[in-house]
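Q: I'm teaching a short session on how sequence maps to structure, and I want students to see two examples side by side rather than one. Could you give me a first protein with its sequence written out and its structure tokens following it? Keep the formatting plain so it prints cleanly on a handout.
A: Of course. Example one:
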Amino acid sequence: MKRLIPLLLMALLLGGAAKPALVPDVSQRRIDIIYSFTGAELLLFGAIVYPGGIRPEEPADIVVVVKGPTEPIILREKQKIAGIWVNAENARFRSVPAFYAVASSRPLKGLVDDRTAAIYELGLQNIQLSPASGATPEMQRRFEAGLVDLKRRGGLYVESPDGVEVSEGVLYRARIAIPARVPVGTYTAETFLIQNKRVVAAAVREIEIDKSGFERFVATVADRWSFTYGLAAVAISLALGWAAAAAFRRL
């Protein structure tokens, strides 16, 4: 919370603006993944600065969204033909967020209309997946729903309708769980101030999630020297197999 104080003072000095402003921060700007990484909890907190320090009669609501990085995905649908499961239809998506979590002070349905939710990608049903295949609209919607459901069941897409706590109409905080199998990359933590079903202020912070220690070394070697890494992996597998066979022969 100490980092919030100078930001809040700066916002107060510039408080001549006609619209409210957000002063956000996150508990961690970088998350390191090591061998014992079992997940992390990200705290998003901040303050709402109103012009002249006058709070509106109707309390404002806060929505926070943590997402990223994007990746292309090909989703295939399996069908059972002659007793055998085979790949049938497929759909391609250009930029799918590998992780998406949204938390709000109240359920999103009562905070914003459908148009606003779609513009700011608020809610699992409003994630822009950028479809690239020539499927029919009905088939595209089916694949989009299937993709979101797969991510949700894997713990990578989360929606918390009461995950933001607003104190005295000014201070807010939300906790977002980062799962152990989250991909590395640059993430964005977006905060939206909602009044009268409209977004009146927004702010963004970036978060880096990367591998550290031995995991980083292995990932770097696999990326830069893929052929050597492959040979080493095969050699280690052969050595372990030979050692296991030798041990069993002695028993």
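Q: Perfect. Now a second example for contrast.
A: Example two:
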Amino acid sequence: MKCKLVDVFTNTRLTGNGLTIFYDFDELTAAQMQALTQEMRQFESIFLTAVDGKYAARIFTVEEELDFAGHPLIGLAYHLHEAFGAAPAHQWSVELNHTSVLLTSSVTEGAFTATMTQGRPDFIKTLSPEEASVLYAALNLGAAHRAGQAAEAISTGLPYIILPVTHGLEDIEFKVANLEPLLEKHGAKFLYVLDINSVEGRTWDNCGKVEDVATGSAAGPVAAYLHKHALTQSNDFIIRQGRFLGRPSEIAVSLECDANGISKINVSGNVVKVADMHLV
């Protein structure tokens, strides 16, 4: 079995969000994919099947399979470009469990960049101040941390609650054993705490055991949130994440708009290879 280690949303090895790409294997069950992801001890792994120019992928965290995720797809574009690309730039269509995703890849002056199109955002729910208070309290955030804007559940493939703060990302501490019951009632899967002043964020698994370094699936909802609340003056900006894990990351976002608002969100990042591996 072959796999590739890459770092996503960075130009520097051993920073950004690490990813294992499994791409040369015999048939694997979901349980085996789950076990391999746990063995690699990264936030997510991606498993690629390539047949006759068609590409399908499955994505796993250490706890479960996901129908969509950002940094594994950005990282996968690196492998597709390296393994199947013949030009400086390419487009790739990748089938996931319930949807297909368009990726682009390019190499310029030795730097690799991938872009994922996330489409039009789905604004699921605006939380009331009382509903948001429960989430702030669950993360040890008080009234002084809270921004004036409402928390919102937004999805571009994976639903997040965007919880805005004005400062104090370093003050976050889990006060509940599991966020999942608090999020499900609002139609969300995960929680993303966003400092609206620095455009920097943090997110975790719902038990608070593993913090994600850089979250491409959250970048779309974050961008939609910033645009809706007029918190950015440009349709092109950078979201920062990973500082608290010593792996600073930058996620580039570009918005396309029409008369109905945001029509498309493009999420981009650099990728660097760390290792090619052969598992016995």
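Q: What should students look for in example two?
A: Point them to this: Residues 85 and 107 are 11 Å apart (CA to CA). Also worth mentioning: The helical segments are 30-40, 71-84, 129-138, 180-184, 216-228.
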